[in-house]
Amino acid sequence: MTRHAATARIRTSAASLAIAALLAAVPPSGAGAVDRKLASAAGEIRVTTYASGLDRPWAIDFLPDGRAIVTEKPGRLRIVAKDGSLSPPVKGVPEVDSRGQGGLLDVTLHPDFSRNRLVYLSFSEPGPNGTNSTAVARGTLNDAGTALEGVAIVFRQLPKVASIRHYGSRVVFAPDGLMFVTTGERSDREFRGQAQDLDSHLGKVIRLTDDGRVPPGNPFVGRSDARPEIWSYGHRNVQGAAIHPVTGRLWTIEHGPQGGDEINIPARGANHGWPLVSHGVEYGGAPVGSGRSSAPGMADPIATWTPVIAPGGMTFYGASLFPAWQGNLLIAGLRSGAVVRLELDGDSVAREERLLTELRRRIRDVAVGPDGAVYAATDESEGEILRIAPAR
Predict the structure, then answer these.
(1) CA nearest neighbour of 109 among 55, 174, 171, 181
(2) Any residues with CB less than 8 A from the CB of 254 and at least 6 apart, and which?
(3) Could you report the per-residue pLDDT of 129-177, keeping only the tens digit for each?
(4) Which of 166, 201, 255, 272 is catalytic?
(5) Rounded to an integer, what distance in angstroms lies between the CA atom of residue 226 and that of residue 221?
(6) Res. 362 pLDDT band, cuts 50 70 90
(7) 2 pLDDT higher than 70
(8) What average pLDDT is seen over the chain?
(9) Chain segment 306-326, per-residue pLDDT in tens
């Protein structure tokens, strides 16, 4: 069950570190609509504001008619028209605990949305006595696009704990129709060791049917000491997930502590090591766990970042608007203030480019629209969705 692979450790120069520190210290401008031409390795790109006035947009997906559907962290779901105008909040969204890093998080359409109109939302679900956990609900978007109907919880992370950090929370569908859900280990030392505990959902990748049942191929089905929903474990805070368009395998990206953001390809039953091993260190510099970056029986990441990029969502590019980006992995970067574009060689990272750094925005999610353009959500109280297309 262990996958051994060479790890690409992605570092930056001293000059780049100084620039990154400066950008981290300067608040996002957030002022006025964006309309700029920027350089890229694929030629000049044009970045424009597609939508604005969003409160901490967290995730983007696209409806079959080309409109976007977007979550706002405080607990609102909106539909964005092609002209960028925002709908009123969609009704029927579950109650969220928006303290800290919590709130309304991912939004994903069912693969057969055109027929069943099912929408999936991940969120931090409040529990008793200040506890909460990641949960996934699904509901049917009515024909008017004004409400989710028949909303039901299809996954609930257990146990609920008293933390306001590390919810993970991406939902993606594999080619076989099964659903992956990523979770966080909730950050605090008293909880995070549960990432290694198979009787806990903390720090795991979860694999389910589209209605929340356990598929028979999951690795721990039938074990009395394990939760059958678990696909892989030993994760820290997985905030990006996407299906590789050729292999059909799940790729994830998770936040490291101080250093050590990592991309993984979680295999069935794999242990990814946290918090026993890490490519980063504790905040303040103390070693994580054993102080080692790998150990026998634990799967190595395929790439790591020190300093961190602080990843949000990610997607593979497969449209025709940017031919040079075919098969590239696009990652939203919060601390890096970038859309991080990775050229791949099989399961290895060949080259990296950081786009949009000139704008000084924290990028929370990235998606490819039906028009082939790249759309990036900014993590701001006056948040935007930016559209990236070739400059013509």
Answers:
(1) 171
(2) 168, 182, 235, 236, 237, 238, 239, 240, 261, 262, 264, 311
(3) 999 999 999 999 999 999 999 999 999 999 999 999 999 999 999 999 9
(4) 166
(5) 8
(6) very high
(7) no
(8) 93
(9) 999 999 999 999 999 999 999
Backbone angles phi, psi at 226, to 5 degrees: -140, 150
pLDDT at 22: 35
Contact 278, 272 (CB under 8 A): no
Residue type, 125: E
The residues, ordered by sequence, that sit 6+ positions from 109 with a Cβ below 8 Å of its Cβ are 61, 62, 63, 69, 118, 119, 120
Yes or no: say if 91 and 119 are a contact pair by the CB < 8 Å rule.
no
Q: At 377, list the tokens.
A: 């959500």
Phi, psi (rounded to 5 degrees) for 116 = -105, -10
Phi-psi region of 346 (alpha: psi -120 to 50; beta: other; left: phi over 0): left
Spatial CA neighbour of 182 closest among 67, 274, 94, 278: 274
Under a CB-based contact definition with an 8 Å cutoff, are residues 321 and 370 in contact?
A: no
DSSP annotation of 161 reads B
d(CA 78, CA 55): 11
**pLDDT tens, position by position, 9-65:** 665 433 343 333 333 333 344 457 999 999 999 999 999 999 999 999 999 999 999
Whether the full predicted model's pTM is greater than 0.85, yes or no, is yes
Amino acid identity of 214? V
Catalytic: 166? yes
Extract the tokens encoding 329.
């992995």
Instruction: Return the bridge partners of 355, or none.
Output: 339
The amino acid at 308: V
- The 3-state DSSP class for residue 350 equals strand
The β-bridge partners of 347 are: none
Q: Which tokens sit at 209?
A: 């049917």
Tokens of 284: 């303040």
Rounded mean pLDDT of 99-121?
Answer: 98
DSSP helix/strand/coil, 342:
strand
Structure tokens that stand for 187 in this block: 């950050």
Tokens, residue 91? 């009704």
User: What is the pLDDT, as a whole number, of residue 392?
Assistant: 83
Average pLDDT on 273-297 reads 96
